[in-house]
Write a structure and sequence with these properties.
It comes from Iningainema tapete BLCC-T55. This is Chemotaxis protein CheW. It holds the Pfam family CheW. The structure is a single chain. This protein is about 10% helix and about 35% strand. The chain has about 170 residues and is mainly β. The longest helix is centred in the C-terminal third of the chain and has 8 residues. About 25% of the residues are buried.
Length: about 170
C-alpha cells in the first residue's frame, strides 16, 4: 500500500527532520517521485509551490493542446495547466493507468508562470549534493526524457528541469 500524501508531507514521519539540517550542509532538498519505468526523479524543493490532490472531474480538458496536457484546473482562483509528466516523456498517459479518481499535482513556479506536473505518487524529500550531478548523455536515457532533465545522481535518480518543461509549453 502506498503511503498517504498527508504522511509524506508531515515532517514527523521523517527520521531526523530534513528541515532541521543546517543550510551550511551544502546539500539541496529535492522532492522524490517515481516516473514511469525510469525509476525516481527529483525536483528541487525550492521550485515547488504546492503539492495537491486533484480530482479527475475537476480538470477541464482543452481542445487542440498536446496530448500530454491534461487540461486546466482552478487553482486559487487562477487557471493552472496540468501536465501529464509520464506521457510527456514518452510513457503511458495517466488516464490509461489511473486506478483512483484522485491525482497528485506538483505545482511549480518558473519565473512568473505556474503549472502542475501530474504524477501517480510522491516519495519523500531527499538531500543531495549538486556537485554529484552527472550529465545526461544520449544513450543513457530515452530521447524523450533528455530535454527535461538536468542530469542524474549516482543513485540513478534523474533531476528534472522545471524550466525546460515550462518552455516546452510556452
Amino acid at each position: 500500500m502506498l503511503p498517504s500524501l498527508d504522511s509524506i508531507l508531515t515532517t514527523t514521519n521523517l527520521n531526523q527532520s530534513i528541515f532541521d539540517i543546517p543550510v551550511e550542509d551544502n546539500r539541496q532538498r529535492f522532492l522524490s517521485f517515481p516516473i514511469g519505468t525510469y525509476g525516481n526523479s527529483l525536483i528541487p524543493l525550492d521550485q515547488i509551490t504546492e503539492i495537491l490532490r486533484v480530482n479527475l472531474e475537476e480538470i477541464l480538458s482543452v481542445p487542440e493542446t498536446p496530448s500530454s496536457v491534461l487540461g486546466a484546473y482552478n487553482w486559487r482562483g487562477d487557471m493552472l495547466w496540468l501536465i501529464d509528466l509520464e506521457h510527456l516523456i514518452g510513457g503511458y498517459s495517466i488516464f490509461a493507468q489511473v486506478l483512483t479518481p484522485q491525482l497528485i499535482a506538483i505545482v511549480l513556479q518558473v519565473d512568473s508562470y505556474y503549472f502542475g506536473l501530474v504524477v501517480k505518487s510522491v516519495n519523500e524529500i531527499e538531500l543531495h549534493h549538486l556537485n554529484q550531478l552527472l550529465p545526461a548523455r544520449m544513450g543513457s536515457f530515452p530521447t524523450q526524457l533528455l530535454p527535461f532533465i538536468i542530469g542524474y545522481l549516482p543513485n540513478g535518480s534523474t533531476v528534472l528541469n522545471p524550466k525546460a518543461v515550462a518552455q516546452f509549453f510556452l
